[in-house]
Amino acid sequence: MKYSLLEVVKLQQDLPGSNLQKGDIGAIVEVYSNPYEAYEVEFCDTKGKTIALLTLKPEQLMPITNRQGAEGNPAMRLTKSTKTNAQTGNEIC
User: Alpha-carbon distance 12 to 77, whole Å?
Assistant: First the structure.
């Protein structure tokens, strides 16, 4: 699946080296197509501080359309004071 810049996505696998778990929420901050499709994804805490910035393959991600299912996720880390993507209305770090 192709993702867009600033799209909010969900992690599909644990990444223990980055202290991230399956289901953690991040925002696409860069899109790569050469030599293969990949995405720079930023994961933030509740204060908007970056906790991880990783280049991930599309199969490591899943789109989310709203905050449903993200409540209680320790790495969701988004609060009502976060910014909103004007295109999608989704919150970003």
Answer: 17
pTM above 0.90, yes or no: no
Contact 27, 8 (CB under 8 A): yes
Beta bridge partners of 31: 39
Residues 6 or more apart whose Cβ sits within 8 Å of residue 83: 91, 92, 93
How far does Cα 83 stand from its chain's mean position?
14
Q: What distance lies between CA 23 and its chain's CA centroid?
A: 10
Residue 61, classed as helix, strand or coil, is strand
- Neighbour count for residue 70 (Cβ, 10 Å): 18
Per residue of the chain (93 residues), what is the pLDDT tens digit? Answer: 899 999 999 999 999 999 999 999 999 999 999 999 999 999 998 899 999 999 999 999 999 876 554 554 545 444 333 455 555 565 666
